[in-house]
Amino acid sequence: MKFRSNNCVAIHLKDLKKAEAFYGGILGFKLKGKTRRQLVFETGHFRLYLNQARKVQPPVLSFSVKDLKGARQFLKQNGCRIVADWGGALYCRDPFGVIFDVIEE
């Protein structure tokens, strides 16, 4: 199983209105997409996803795989716990407590 980093980072936070003002207005990142629960900014080297959540969480790195179903099984067999699964992407908690995103290419 081969994992490859991609250009996506997610941050989970409470207030998207304030986040839009800060990341778009103060830092000057270009808003590429907006829904009620998510903002997407182009930052230059990576795409930043700001997701609305009940509490602030550390940034989530994203990795791509060719076979998500196989990756899911591989990760579980190697001590990871799947914490969210959206079909085409999942959040996984590694044995050290770090959460990362895995998407199918």
Structure commentary:
It is a single chain. With 105 residues, this protein is an alpha+beta fold. It has a single domain (4-104), classed as Roll (2,3-Dihydroxybiphenyl 1,2-Dioxygenase, domain 1), CATH 3.10.180. The protein is built from two helices and eight strands. An eight-stranded mixed sheet has the order 2-3-4-1-5-8-7-6, covered by helices on one side. The longest helix is centred in the first third of the chain and has 11 residues, at 16-26. The model has no long low-confidence stretch (mean pLDDT 96).
Unreliable spans: none
- Main sheet characteristics: 8 strands, mixed
Report strand %. Answer: over 45%
Count of β-strands: 8
Per CATH, the superfamily is: 2,3-Dihydroxybiphenyl 1,2-Dioxygenase, domain 1
Percent of residues in helices: 10-25%
What's the helix-strand series? Answer: EHEEEEHEEE
How are the strands ordered across the major sheet? 2-3-4-1-5-8-7-6
